[in-house]
Give the backbone structure.
Amino acid sequence: MTSARDITRAAWPPRSVYLDYPLGHTSGKPHEPELNLQILRDTFAAFEHLGVPGSMAHLPYRWSETDRWKDKVFAPSTKAADLPECATPGGDGAQQDATGGDYEDDRVERHPTPQHQTEDDAAAARLSHDGEDCLVCAGIDY
């Protein structure tokens, strides 16, 4: 599943399913479990029918009635006052940032080491890699 069509095309996985939603929302909108479940069902169904290597199915769901939410994603400006109305927090132009000033980068911080939700997850990851080289985790020090 992907929300980054061009990146996925460049990586050329055996098969993929594209959902034109903001990054981080590949399985749908938050707090909409029925939509999340339907997107997952449609994804699995698409995988069953994608037979040509490199095939990509496109799911028909829309994040909103218009594509104006993309203005924030591709906005070259860093000042809220310079952004199009639809690019303000909320994506519909109804809000501006709390200070009315700088637009802040709301992407998740990147870390050079793995991040885990709980200490149990971290311990399980360390245990699963104990004494073995993992090709997926090459270069990551546990």
Summary: Residues 87-103 have pLDDT under 50 and may be disordered. Helices lie at 5-11, 33-49, 70-73, 119-128.
